[in-house]
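Q: What residues go here?
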């Protein structure tokens, strides 16, 4: 029997936000695990249909719903910490040697569980991070496709350019065009859909800014997921 969705988020504030969003019906029902991903074992994930790591305020889960991905369809997502690769943070210069470089930890869980589809995201300057992702996923026979997308492709007033990757087992067949070549779909979201999900009782301005600052733009991630679905229904 499915346990629903699994959300791994170690900071208490966004973890509670996830619970509020589940209660409001904005993201799939499931469990929030507030441990560090370094403490998560493959057996802890058994029975979950979807697993969202570094879950933040549920951007990937919300994006999947925007794209029409069913709640009961297998899916793994994650946005590894950007601090080691962002020039705006204290991790500047450390990159893959930084203790906050957690892709290797997540990859071990992916390799042990072998879910069919994995979506992920990182800051656009993290090319060495992307090289590691591509090599590691290839070593377990997953294909990797990459798009570099800014937030303004869905009508945002800022760039927020990010690397998005899609990785899948060989059973998913043909490759697709990069999303930026599919501009006809980028206007399909209404103004209402472009809005962020409400906070539902969480009003601390500083904490809200931090939560939003660490979040993906769900509408952009939804485009990545929708493009995958068009070629691999």
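A:
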């Amino acid at each position: 029997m499915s346990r629903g969705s699994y959300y791994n988020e170690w900071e208490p504030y966004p973890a509670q936000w996830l619970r509020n969003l589940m209660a409001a019906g904005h993201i799939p029902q499931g469990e929030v695990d507030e441990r560090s991903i370094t403490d998560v074992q493959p057996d802890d994930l058994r029975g979950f249909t979807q697993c969202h790591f570094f879950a933040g305020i549920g951007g990937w889960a919300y994006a999947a719903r925007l794209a029409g991905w069913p709640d009961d369809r297998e899916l793994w997502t994650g946005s590894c910490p950007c601090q080691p690769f962002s020039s705006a943070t204290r991790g500047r210069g450390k990159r893959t040697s930084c203790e906050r470089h957690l892709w290797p930890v997540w990859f071990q869980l992916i390799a042990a569980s072998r879910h069919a589809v994995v979506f992920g995201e990182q800051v656009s300057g993290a090319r060495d991070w992307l090289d590691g992702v591509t090599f590691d996923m290839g070593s377990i026979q997953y294909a990797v496709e990459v798009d570099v997308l800014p937030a303004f492709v869905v009508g945002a007033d800022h760039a927020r350019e990010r690397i998005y990757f899609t990785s899948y087992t060989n059973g998913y067949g043909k490759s697709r065009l990069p999303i930026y070549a599919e501009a006809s779909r980028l206007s399909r979201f209404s103004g209402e859909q472009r809005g962020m999900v409400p906070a539902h009782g969480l009003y601390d301005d500083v904490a809200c800014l931090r939560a939003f600052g660490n979040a993906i733009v769900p509408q952009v991630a939804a485009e990545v997921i929708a493009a995958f679905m068009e070629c691999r229904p």
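A: Context that may help when evaluating the design: The longest strand covers residues 142-149. The chain is about 30% helix and 15% strand.
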